[in-house]
TrEMBL record, chain A:
One of its GO terms (molecular function) is hydrolase activity. It comes from Streptomyces griseoaurantiacus. The keyword Cytoplasm does not apply. It holds the Pfam family Abhydrolase_6. This is Alpha/beta hydrolase. Keywords: Hydrolase.
Amino acid sequence: MDIRRRNNVRITGAAQGPVVMLAHGFGCDQNMWRLVEPALAEHHRVVTFDYVGSGGSDLSAWTEERYSSLHGYARDVVEVCEELDLRDAVFVGHSVSAMVGVLAAEAAPGRIGAMAMVAPSPCYVDEEGYRGGFTREDIGELLDSLESNYLGWSSAMAPVIMGNPERPELGQELTNSFCATDPDIARVFARTTFLSDSREDLARVKVPTLVMECSEDVIAPREVGAYVHGAIPGSRLVTLDATGHCPQLSAPEATARALLDFLRNLQ
Amino acid sequence: MSPLSLTHRDTVAGPVLLVAGELDFVHAAELRRQVEGLVLHAGQCLVLDLSGVEFCDSTGITALLAARQHALAAEAEIVLAAVPAHLERILTIVGLVQVFTLRATAEDT
Amino acid sequence: MSRTGEGPDSSRGNGGRAHTHAAFSALLEDSAEELYESAPCGYLSTLMDGTIAKINTTLLNWLGLDREDVVGRRRFVDLLTVGGKLYHETHFAPLLRMQGELRGIALEMRTAQGARLAVLVSSAVKYGSEGDPLLIRTTVFDASDRRAYEEELLRRRQEAEHARAEAEAARRQAEADRQRLADALAVLQRSLLPETLPRLPGIETAVYYHTASPDRLGGDFYDLFPLGDGRWAFFLGDVCGKGPEAASLTSLTRHTLRTAAHHDPTPVTALTTLNTVLHERYSASGDPRYCTVVYGILEPGRDGGPATVQLASGGHPPALVLRADGGVDLLSTPGGLLVGVLPSAPVVTAGTTLAPGDTLLLYTDGLTEARTGPTRASLYGEDALYGFVAAQAPTTAQELVTALTALLKGFGEGLDDDTALLALGVPGIPAHPLPVSDDPR
């Protein structure tokens, strides 16, 4: 199997520089990193990719079984690392990808030498003694939202849901947007993302780790950022002056600055 | 294929049933139903006029035997009349010529 | 329309035109603000961090909110349901940042009373002269009806998929049931006929069985088995009727005859026992059922010499003997009655000797009752059979059955009843003019 094609792997930046691997979260694809990539690429070799099921990945490689667990996504990361023979790469994971990175670093020691977690949350659902910010019912609402946007994407979608999902021109319309994914795949990714609990994995992180939280984030509130920082031994916490869950888009300069600062301190 | 046709008339001696067509797996049950619905009195004689029978298989034979039992149960007699040659040959092979009374015509002489 | 002289009112007088102009202007001046506030859709503008800077009355009314509580105090995501917030953060906001605009996204807003409002949202980023993003303009359409329609479509699709899945499951179940039934029938059928014939010393045997009924349960039967004293019993017959009922009669007949043969193998005794059993089981209770059967005992000769056959028949067509010299004999049993019809039935016996080269043939009437024309007026018949068999003689058991099998196949659709063939032959001494096969199949 051609891993580079399967995961739509792109490599930019300084060929001899230290490797930074940028991993997108649930919702969109590697384009999320477009605004911070140039700053990183000046002195680093930047690897971006799409998880199978997202963006420009090979959808035929997707199976519900594999991608119903974060371990399936971690295998994507490990396989890309092996394909490119990366060693001690700095893994930058946004949102759920931060937890995927934890699993990947553990599964393939030596491939990932440090991690930066952007707006991470190890558990989105409130549990006893832990506040993730959401209830299981809330997550059900998100799944409904995904469903209705599949419906609402275009009025031309009506014939599709009436039993003609193979019309290629409609598929074209959907893939014009970089956040658009197959609704069945998106549903699985959403469920895996928002219903998994990775809290226990955090204590096993052995590589230098930077936790980057946003000052205003409805998905990963600050108390969750504090939890992650507290759970990972020796981690550093940075609070970005950014609103929303995607600081690499809403505050790209601040995000890049914090990353570069972390990268510099590693050397 | 000729379907079975059954014509019933009463005489002084007893009922006469004219049987025509094919006595096979599909139609023999009809003869059985008709015969078992006939009211017979002791001493009467049930006549089955078989002149129009074109074919008779083992289920047809069964229907004839059922008719015989029906008659005997009512202490009546049974006669097979105007039996065609092909049917008489079968009745001979299976030994029923000894069991049934065969007569040339339906009319008593 | 506001430009004088070009609108539809240009035919009017000058004064009228001026008046119209003024009215339109008034309307327009009024409508700039009025249109924004009372438009049939919601408008809002936010800073790049989502803080609401401006919102129209329509949207405030839909949400049951006061302007003072919203402007400068709340962000756009605060107006959404939790599912809407998640979707906004994971899809909407990134898309808007990347593309600069976004159209027709389905979201749900929450009203002050806690009700949900299904909306379609379009947003566009306004950029400054340097290309820096300044604010986000958003329009909100009430999509309750549309969402209800979509949900209906979705529900119908799910129902259709459910129905399809159920139909598929039912089809598979039916297929499995059919297969199980076919397996059960096959097992039953094997109980009605011997799987293989035993090998007899100095005797060649051959059988053929044709099943006409689609459920594969036949009404004909045969068997051949040792009596333990050097003699062998054989029988072949035909029960009345078809299908499962005939099969149960066949089963009773076969096992009664086998048991009777071991008790007293004499042909008359065996058939008399069968007659008693069948009569008591069926005819005596008003359900006349019967069979025709030939039952016999064969005693092979020593060192390939002549074998003797004693047989009895109850209402069955006569057995045929194909002689080594080419002649054909009928083993007639006139007067033998259907078995099971009367409490005590006459059974007629016959006997013969099978010299080397002689072959005994037993058959059921499926063979002679096969249609040779479009109707039952033209049946194959005994005379044709006798002629066919005479043309084969002398022959061996296997060759005879092979020839008759080909004859049966030739009847095609005309063969609509079960047919059984059983041939027993004493191999001939290889001599002129024909070589005789000694194939023991």
